[in-house]
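Next comes a single protein record:
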Amino acid sequence: MHMMKISRVLGASAVAAVLTAGLTAAPSRAETPVAPVAAAAPKAVRGDLTGDGKADLAVYGGFYGGGQEIQLIPGGAVGTLGRGAAAVNQNDPGIPLRNDPARFEEFGTALAYGDFNADGRTDLAVGAPFATVGGVVSAGAVTVLYGRAGAPYYTRAKVFTQNTPGVPDLAEASDRFSDVLAAGDFDGDGYADLAVGAPLEDVGSKADAGSVTVLRGGASGLTATGARVLTQDTGGVPGTAGLRSRFGERLATGNLAGTPADELVVVAPYDPAPAGTPEFICTGPGGTSQRSRPAGSVTVLRGGTGGPLTRTGAQYLTSAKLALGSITGGLSYSATTAVTGRLYGGTYADLAVSGKYANGGKCNEGAVAVVRGGKNGLPATATTVLTAANAGRPRVEGTLFGADLAVGDVDGSGIPDLLAISRRTSDGEHDTPGYAALLFGSTRGPATAGRFTWAAAQDTDPHLTGGALLDVDGDRTAELVLTAPIATTESDRDTGILYVLKLKKTGTSAGITAWQRVRRGSLGTAGHNGPVGPIAH
């Protein structure tokens, strides 16, 4: 955490993220045209490191051999996954970042896919938010692996920190640079760029106000040349840097306005609620009422030639003012995640954001607001709000429906479907297992064309925590990939499991046609641990 030397720096990037609310336009600036798109290879399949048309799985694999590692699992038919898997340890000769032996640097706990050099193969950004940089502990670093066909599935690696020449910042203790990562083509030039969150960055005298650094892609991959840092004190960014607001704690990316460049949406989950904001009420243990004044904000920045802020229409969304259909008020503070996709099948990507609860619901039950994109950006209200009831499940305190979200076309309809994870919870008397809910989309939005829910009842205490929708077998429809990092089956005790499910939809229901547990024993020599998660998507 440190006092930034540049408190009002111009930023570049496009991503999409979390909480809720009413929108206000930022001060406009001259419209800048999008740069011509560079000639490049065909667009990479999301997650396809090897270039064979199948998504490969990249997942955090825990601590081994004096460092932490990720597991790269080539795509293939469900039932065969794990063959040819490779483990990438931060102490490997090809990785420039070396583990501080006195610390867990969390290499691999943040992952993001993006084709940064536009060669038709996906590349992988790997965060190490607690990395020691120049003797500074927990400053953070990001390593970029450039995809290739054969094991270990990357040709070269490059490390970026806040001390990298060209990055307009300095590494300081506990900034946690790379705590969250998201890729998108923020300047419309055909190369993916990378947004790197440092949610504990100090801005001026404001501790943990947070920042986002944007690294630009190009023919040689990511570069620090032209890197920008964004904070809530950056000129043109709505809002003001706040004490412990943690701007950049959640990121995602999407083309919300239909231009060649993606939008950047950055969440500050602890932005204080505006004066006069009414309290929300939720039902807690024993039916008691609990009150909370919703905090948090989301900033939406439109992309262009120079990245965010080069086009007019920046928007500021506060948690307090998002109307949630028939549920008044909005989502509580500390939203958990967000994704984008054409959830209504329209021209523009839409934004799905999750929070702890909706006003009038159960405390920490979770809710997901879906906001439709459009030519002029996002509207001031959510189009719909989803709860566990939309998945055919009871609304239970503490389950955090929407704790993780993912988007992908599972049924081949051409309209993405929405995956929402609900986590296991226990109040000492009742135990509610975690589950995955797939809400099929149509032109009427998510959960209007059927649903599918699944819990790993065949394994003990699976603790589902996240998931992705990726086309692992190359048939142009996505499979469900779910992470269970604390699986306790005897052969996989405390090592983690991936569950991969292939579905076939008939009418409004879907069934499993193939499924697989990817566990420590599936990974051959890469199986030092099981796949703990998170997983890149």
Q: What stands out?
A: Confidence is low (pLDDT under 50) at residues 1-37, 323-334. Residues 219 and 389 are 47 Å apart (CA to CA). The two ends are 28 Å apart (CA to CA).
